[in-house]
Design brief:
single chain; Rossmann fold; alpha/beta; 4-stranded parallel beta sheet; two-stranded antiparallel ribbon; 6 strands
Length: 167
């Protein structure tokens, strides 16, 4: 529904509108960073925007592989279950249907845009608002995973207020 029609339906009311219906989180293998970002975003949006669909994929995905055990453990400690996650390759259909695509590293913006140039402006760094990249913890220590997850949490928290608009 067009925003001006929503305003006419609820003049003077205080409410928020979700700007994005489909959000895609992208990393390299789709077993560490993007599943954690997907889980956190989904968890935050479940109550506030239940119709918003969050998914993740990888630029060089380890297709069919589960999330990394350390990612599963860290997310479980936050009440988020990644045990059913299976890595998938980012493709043009995922990109085309996504309103917002959040990547972990600057080079990934260009990599996604090259797959479908018409989506420029919809691909952003998860750490855009504070100017940081999320380091890849693949095959690294739990401490490195914790650092990456902390960066993902920061990025998600900085994006959340920008996912809504108050007409």
């Amino acid at each position: 529904m067009h925003l001006s029609r929503i305003k006419n339906l609820f003049p003077g009311s205080f409410y928020e509108c979700m700007v994005f219906e489909q959000i895609l989180a992208v990393c390299v293998g789709n077993i560490c960073r993007s599943p954690m970002a997907e889980g956190l975003l989904s968890s935050h949006l479940r109550q506030r925007a239940p119709k918003t669909h969050v998914m993740s994929a990888g630029l060089s995905a380890l297709v069919g592989q589960p999330a990394d055990p350390t990612a599963i453990e860290l997310m479980s400690e936050r009440g988020i279950d990644l045990t059913e996650h299976r890595a998938r390759q980012v493709n043009v259909e995922f990109i085309r249907t996504s309103d917002l695509i959040l990547v972990m590293e600057t080079w990934q913006v260009k990599a996604v845009e090259e797959m479908m140039p018409s989506i420029r402006g919809r691909v952003h760094l998860l750490g855009k608002w504070s100017g940081f990249e999320v380091g890849d913890p693949f095959s690294k220590s739990r401490e490195i995973f914790e650092t990456s997850l902390s960066q993902i949490e920061r990025g998600v928290n900085e994006w959340l207020p920008r996912l809504f608009t108050a007409p």
